[in-house]
Amino acid sequence: MFRLDNLVLEQEGFRLSADWQAEPGAKIAVIGPSGAGKSSLLAAIAGFYAPASGRIWLDGRDLTGLPPGERPLSILFQDQNLFPHLTLAQNLGLGIRPDLRLTPPDHVRVAEALERVGLSGFGARKPAQLSGGQASRAALARVLLRARPLLLLDEPFAALGPALKGEMLALLAEVAGETGATVLMVTHEPRDALDFAGQTVLVADGVAAAPVATGPLLADPPPALAAYLGFKT
Amino acid sequence: MVAAPLAAVAFRAGGVRLSTPDLAALRFTLLQAGLSALISVALAVPVAKALARRRFPLRGLLITLMGAPFLLPVIVAVIGLITVFGRSGWVNAGLATLGLPGFSIYGLHGVVIAHVFLNLPLAVRMILQAWVSVPSERFRLAASLGFRPRDIARHIERPMLASVLPGALATVFAICLTSFAVALTLGGGPRATTLELAIYQAIRFEFDLGDAAGLSLIQTGIGAFAALLAWRLASAPGFGAGLDRALPLPAPAGWRRLADAGWLLLAAAFLLLPLLALILRGLPGLAELPPSLWGASLRSVLVALISTLVTVAAGLTLALGVARSRSRRMELNAVLPLAVSGLVLGTGLFLIARPFASPGQLALPVTVLVNAVMALPFVYRLLITDARALEADYGRLAASLDLQGVARLRYLTLPRLARPLGFAAGVAAALSMGDLGVIALFASGQEATLPLLVQQLMGAYRTEAAAAAALVLITLSFGLFWIFDAGGRHVQAR
To answer: Which residues have a Cβ under 8 Å from the Cβ of B401 and sit 6 or more positions away?
Structure first.
């Protein structure tokens, strides 16, 4: 069970509060106007900046004070998800052991993860030799290897074309299904929310609202969401 | 590292009392630094202007050469200058054939000539940087309004110069203030002694530690003021990026073309002739090098390598720390050494360690430490931009993967910072290799480094051997620089 307990984020001229929980394995889209705090919410959950007050819980464990690397979660950013100077195998290996002291079985797992995302035989390549879609696949393969119970995505596929993005969302659903992870995905495309996520969190007017079913929310949006989507009310 | 020696110095001084020679040293220090700064910058303006608005073959090489004197061991520059301007040098030989009176390089004008030689290139690079950073749209607008060169000077160039000249003046002034090797070799005597030289003499010849400590305090006071002023006024000196854009305007023809060519030729001759003279003088001397050369070279290289290791490790730690925390206080740590002179630091360390060891035993360890501290600001400046970029690009990814400690250093920091690290290590090694400061204070014959050996040969009037040893020194310095720099570029991850 993932839970935000009276969480309050504060920065200069910015405030966001969240108080809700999500079922294990839930797939949740995070949607809202730019500047509302979607990325800040994810950054706080991942441990990149400390909330002003409140706690973050996962499966009965308090994550609030933990450094980012010790939190039981994986995060994918908009870009720079792979180190450009390391090979794909090394980039994936970091997901198993950050010091890269891999055992032979670890190497087998890396190869299997690459195969799982359709990149078998790409282990020796560097990210610059990959297309955008292939780089996204490689990052997802590392998520698979890490197998953490919470997965955060900050518009990781925003730079991909529509067809490729659909493919990635499908692969993401498979990866999340295999690891049983709870997924929070920031997106600005209502389409992505409908395709991928059963539930949606609306971030607007200083509040990250509790997740609700995506379909009904989009069909009958509250004023803030309607304004963002461009609906005339 | 900076504070402890200073405290030791302050404690020993116990009040500043200035004798008449001390006052004379203070006056001479300020006078020579002021003159050196004014002349360097005044000459740098037309040279930078010519470099900015002309394109010619070898222009890139000339700009690169302008970076070299920064790494050139001071003692080497001095020997080159003596060969050209000295009593039996080229200039005096020319004057003699014309039947004109001779000219002596020793004293105030010698010190100033050497400082201009060493700092003119730095001033040119700072001003050139400002010149080429004027947006080309500004020049295009000027052209469309029918500006003549005089109007451009008034509306574009003078405001630009007004913003960059104070920084350039303060930087050169601060450097000349703590200059030791030049004053040691070309100055001296009651009328041409700098504070640094007075400290050296007080310790070395009179063994008056109280006087030396008092002088050190004054030196640090003025030095700190000038260095902080320069740090505030000057932006990064710019080690040669982006100087190759297309010309915004066709350069004016006519007499201005001749004048520009004249300035460039003069500057190139002034900077290159002494080096050429050194090579011509030194090559025949290679045969009569004393056997102590090899020991001195080995000691110099070892000192350079150890102090490079120390200073690069410290600089990297500071740069990464500042990049992560944006702490201003940490940044101050990296800048602080600019405010003190190596000789003052050495005096302080000597005072601290004196109860435990003899000066001879201390000479090399203190030199290593002082060289490391003195190179730290440069190393930090060369690393901080890339360290910030590294943190911005990969800091979060590394944190989310729990990549830290040795693994982070090995798989992220070193591969991605190899190029600036190599360059910074090269600069640190060359600076340490060529340093003639603390070592002169403590070393007897047994611990001499290469620059000290050169100075001793000069003092013994073995000019050819001194020039030859200087050739060895310059080869080793630039060799070390090249190895580190090329190594970094080779390792740099793509």
So the answer is: A69, A94, A95, A98
